[in-house]
Design goal:
Blueprint: H1 8-29, H2 31-34, H3 36-40, E1 45-46, E2 52-53, E3 58-60, E4 66-68, H4 77-105, H5 107-128, H6 137-167, H7 172-201, H8 203-235, H9 238-247, H10 258-289, H11 296-322, H12 325-345, H13 350-368, H14 372-375, H15 381-407, H16 415-449, H17 458-484, H18 491-504
């Protein structure tokens, strides 16, 4: 018996391998955050005579003291933040074209192309660490992040379009939530395991381990391509998909509604607060709270993704039923405001803030990204996802650069000055959150004015669709009646015939 593409088992099997596409890439994306002290500590170490030896390494502890013997690459904070900035900028440029390419050439071409770029980029990044102490280290690692960014952002668009195709009008938000949870599982395991693995096997083998995980994603891309092709043929959708792809044009962007643009800006400003924070959170927590255990700051920073991993599938299932996507986007943006205030102005235990941020981030991701297929045509979902991702990555890239500039070079800087710089960073991230609140408010205002779809529940959506069908049926029936009036005897139609007879006479 053939594997039935109409069944829930088939589409959730597609979803499983679709989730594996980005498990490894999300693990690798935030590896620099966990290994920030290894990336930014000095590569030189004073010997017993007080001179400096270029062959001996030193690693920074959580209180910024130094000791010899660690894996250290010797980057400055600005160079370190470039690893995130170039990832974001590359995404910003590539994903727009990637979205159009996916809509034009199909999901399967995108799967192979972008998973390949992720694999090659992660390998180059690992190779870059072999050039420790030389001028080639930073360029090679930046090139690796550039290729990795070119693939990962675009691969996420393919993943989202595949999810939208298989789950639209079914368990759409649930499927998006499960996909996000798998991605965040990669991030969470990174924060829990990477430091321990590095202590046991060293920095270089840790980076190569990341390459293996990305390789699993590449294998999953092959499997999901086969499933998607066979499933589309069983559903009789292959010809329709090809026909839709022929009609895709760049100028379709001008037809995107105001709801789409406000939704995109809401996503941009929310992620401007989350991702730049997580990128530097380990070092911030280490600097401000002076933990004696080097792993504790990574665990606390990773709590943002812990919450997302656990809550996203549950929230997706609930949102599928109750709707209220726009209201939830506004609520979670508003509730994020205190997070950066706590980090900037209080000495509360930082886990409170990271758990809080993880909860609001889970609501934001589960309510905003699944809304994009609802406000654009099916044929341009990839293009819409690409534009939103591009805007998001431009914002994150700029924020990473600004954060790096605010922190500057901290060598020889007093503890009070460091804390003041971090306070400015938190205030900057708070400003992005306030902008998100404004965009989410305008999004809801526009959706309500146009009687949109963002905030209606599943039952309300079905009722609206039934009403539309009733109206269409009534309209078509009335039209048919008017064409046959003159042929039917009796009632008012007799009068119509009388009029015609009068005219004839």
């Amino acid at each position: 018996m053939a594997f039935n593409a109409h069944s829930a088992v088939y589409r959730f099997t597609v979803l499983f391998f679709n989730c594996l596409l980005t498990f490894g890439t999300y693990f690798c994306f935030d590896m620099p955050s966990v290994l920030q002290t290894h990336f930014t500590c000095d590569v030189t170490c004073p010997d017993t005579n007080g001179t400096t030896s270029a062959t001996t390494t030193m690693s920074a502890s959580s209180n910024d003291s130094t000791m010899c013997g660690g894996d250290c690459l010797g980057m400055s904070d600005s160079q370190y933040n470039l690893l995130y900035a170039i990832y974001a900028w590359t995404n910003a440029v590539v994903v727009i074209g990637a979205g159009v390419l996916i809509d034009k050439l199909g999901i399967r071409v995108g799967l192979f192309l972008f998973s390949s770029l992720c694999l090659v980029g992660s390998i180059l990044f690992a190779v870059g660490a072999l050039f420790k102490g030389s001028a080639a280290l930073l360029p090679v690692m930046l090139l690796g992040r550039l290729l990795f960014g070119s693939g990962n952002g675009s691969l996420t668009i393919v993943q989202n379009k595949l999810t939208a195709f298989w789950f639209k009008d079914k368990e759409l938000a649930l499927a998006f939530g499960i996909t996000l949870a798998f991605s965040r599982l990669g991030s969470v395991l990174n924060f829990f395991l990477t430091e321990t693995f590095t202590d046991a096997f060293g920095l270089k083998w840790t980076l190569w381990g990341g390459c293996i995980l990305v390789g699993i994603g590449f294998a999953s891309a092959i499997v999901v391509s086969i499933l998607d092709k066979a499933g589309a043929e069983q559903l009789g959708q292959s010809d329709a998909i090809k026909e839709q792809s022929k009609r895709v044009r760049i100028r379709d962007v001008k037809d995107f509604t105001l709801s789409f643009w406000l939704l995109s800006l809401t996503i941009v400003f929310f992620y401007n607060g989350v991702f730049p924070f997580v990128a530097d959170a380990s070092k911030f927590i280490s600097t401000k709270y002076q933990f004696s255990n080097d792993k504790t700051p990574s665990y606390i920073a990773g709590a943002v993704y812990d919450c997302s991993m656990l809550l996203s599938p549950f929230l997706g299932g609930v949102i599928d039923i109750v709707g209220k996507r726009g209201y939830l986007a506004l609520l979670c943006a508003t509730l994020t405001i205190p997070v950066f205030g706590i980090l900037a102005f209080t000495s509360w235990y930082p886990l409170i803030a990271t758990l809080w941020l993880g909860i609001t981030y889970s609501f934001a991701a589960s309510s905003t990204w699944p809304s994009i297929p609802l406000v654009v045509k099916d044929s341009v979902v990839g293009t819409a996802m690409g534009i939103t991702t591009s805007m998001q990555m431009i914002g994150i890239g700029l924020c990473n650069v600004i954060v790096g500039a605010l922190l500057g070079d901290d060598k020889g800087v007093s503890q009070d000055e460091k804390l003041l710089r971090w306070k400015y960073v938190m205030i900057f991230l708070l400003g992005n959150t306030l902008a998100c609140v404004l965009c989410a408010f305008l999004l809801n205002l526009n959706d309500k004015r146009k009687k949109g779809i963002l905030n209606i529940s599943r039952s309300q959506k079905k009722e609206r669709e039934m009403q539309i069908r009733r109206d269409q049926y009534t309209s078509s029936t009335s039209s048919a009646d008017s064409e046959t009036d003159r042929l039917l005897p009796g009632g008012p139609r007799e009068g119509v015939q009388s009029d015609y007879r009068t005219i004839d006479s």
